[in-house]
UniProtKB/TrEMBL annotation:
UniProt lineage: Eukaryota, Metazoa, Spiralia, Lophotrochozoa, Annelida
Keywords, sorted A to Z: Actin-binding, ATP-binding, Motor protein, Myosin, Nucleotide-binding
Top-level taxon in the UniProt lineage: Eukaryota
UniProt family annotation: Belongs to the TRAFAC class myosin-kinesin ATPase superfamily. Myosin family.
Statement: the UniProt record of this protein carries the keyword Nucleotide-binding: yes
Name of the molecule in the record: Myosin motor domain-containing protein
MF terms in GO: actin filament binding; ATP binding; microfilament motor activity
């Protein structure tokens, strides 16, 4: 009968859902809403899983400059992106 516990303001819009203090459906959906609607970030991590929200429009986040920015970087040091996941997979496969 009580409403779900709310995460502190500092965690709202966090890159990784696993860093939320309270990980329940309303908190996850609110975090994704803040990232997508307020910040126009379509990618969010949930641990090692990449969560993507389809913006139903073309975004300029898949160009060669973005590929180069993620090349050779660690997954945790950059914003969530499909290129970060691909770079991490390539590094682990090469090892």
């Amino acid at each position: 009968s009580l409403p779900p516990l709310r995460n502190p303001e500092i965690l709202i819009g966090e890159n990784d859902l696993t860093s939320l203090s309270y990980l329940h459906e309303p908190a996850v959906l609110y975090n994704l809403q803040v990232r997508f609607c307020d910040r126009n970030d379509i990618y969010t991590y949930c641990g090692i899983v990449l969560v993507a929200i389809n913006p139903y429009e073309s975004l300029p986040i898949y160009d060669n400059d973005t590929i180069q920015a993620y090349s050779g970087q660690d997954m945790a040091t950059m914003d969530p992106h499909i290129f970060a996941v691909a770079e991490e997979a390539f590094k682990r496969m090469s090892r």
